[in-house]
Amino acid sequence: MTASGPTPGRRRRGPGMTEVARAAGVSQKTVSRVVNGEPHVSPQVRDRVLRVIRELDYRPNNAARALLLGRYRRIGVVSLGTALYGPSTLLIALERAMQRAGYSFALAGTLEGQQISVAVEALLEQGVDGIVLSEPIDDGTPLRIGADVPVVSLAEGVELTEGAGAVVGADGVAAARLATEHLLSLGHRTVWHIPGPQNWWAARDRLRGWREALAAAGIPEPPLPTAGDWSPASGYAAGRQLARLADVTAVFAANDDMALGALRAFAEAGLTVPDDVSVVGYDDIPAAAYTSPPLTTVHHDTAALADHAVDVLIAMIEGSPRPDRPTGLAVELTVRASSGPVRDQAPVA
């Protein structure tokens, strides 16, 4: 007797597009349009096809799709393996932007010290139409990416050896100038800075913006405390150093977590914020509005940044004109109670 059922050790073939079309009562072309995010499908039909896809656990064959369409409809992202607020929220925003554009999302995570080029190669082996480099860091050597697909970097310092490329990002230099100028406008004679790790391009941009603002005002740079690592603990350590100095009245921290650590250090030293020292952060994390006092901080629209990066990349993938928008998206200062005029001194006009 011939045994029925699947052969042991062999994976059963999943349902194909024909089975999905039959169960949904539509043509295979309609199923293909739904799967590939194409237009000309009514919402009711799209919902019915998607329901059948879920019920049958249909998984499109990406290799076959790539042969048919010449593309995978998939974008790869290289991101640091970190739970930090900025990179993690940006990663979520990128995935959502890709889904809205009808592309799937593939992630290759790296840890600091690992080669980004290795992660890029892993994505190329999976099959992607383009790659986003999110929050690259500098290990001291030029970052050269050889890829035969378009690449968008969300920071500088990336050299593309092949293919098309673009840099899209928030203007961290302008944002840091804005934060520093805000404190100077309140009458502070200088602004101290708690820098982030200097192998991060974002930290370098914020340090540069702080320096440019002081130079434009003709103010010498005060010495930097020990650079932080983006954590509240490192901001606390830097805050303790600054709290020992009698002339510190204004501090700009390179991110909100370090600013929160500095707030704790100043409180322990008996300093009142903002009467004795004003503090400004960067990122506008959800907790910033609920600290004591609420934190003045730089806000940038992460969703808008992700949308723009994905729009630029898809334009390169599809050979269409790139969106006519600036490469550096605008930032704004969210002013709260942690920054104020110097005590017993009127703000500078």
Kindly list the characteristics that best describe this protein.
alpha/beta, 434 Repressor (Amino-terminal Domain), Rossmann fold, 3 domains, elongated
CATH topology of the largest domain: Rossmann fold
Strand content: 15-25%
Portion of residues in helices?
Answer: 25-40%
Shape verdict: elongated
Tally of DSSP β-strands: 14
Order of helices and strands: HHHHEHEHEEEEEEHEHHEHEEHEE
CATH architecture of the largest domain: 3-Layer(aba) Sandwich
- Major sheet: 5 strands, parallel
- How many helical elements? 11
CATH superfamily of the largest domain: Response regulator
List unreliable stretches of 5+ residues. 1-12, 345-349
What is the typical, i.e. mean, pLDDT? 85
* CATH C-level label of the largest domain: Alpha Beta
Integer-rounded radius of gyration: 25 Å
Identify the strand order in the major beta sheet. Answer: 2-1-3-5-7
Number of domains as seen in the coordinates: 3
Q: How many angstroms does the end-to-end distance come to? A: 96 Å
- The secondary-structure class comes to alpha/beta
Give a description of the structure.
The structure is a single chain. This protein has 3 domains: 17-55, 434 Repressor (Amino-terminal Domain) (Orthogonal Bundle); 73-170 and 302-330, Rossmann fold (3-Layer(aba) Sandwich); 172-300, Response regulator (Rossmann fold, 3-Layer(aba) Sandwich). With 349 residues, the chain is of the alpha/beta class. Helix 1 crosses helix 2 (28-35) and helix 7 (172-185) packs across helix 8 (201-216). It starts with 16 loop residues before the first helix and ends in a 15-residue tail after the last strand. A 5-stranded parallel sheet has the order 2-1-3-5-7, sandwiched between helices. A 5-stranded mixed sheet has the order 9-10-11-12-14, with helices on both faces. Strands 4-6 form a two-stranded parallel sheet. It contains 11 helices and 14 strands. It is elongated. This is HTH-type transcriptional repressor purR. Pfam families: LacI, Peripla_BP_3. GO terms for molecular function: DNA-binding transcription factor activity; transcription cis-regulatory region binding.
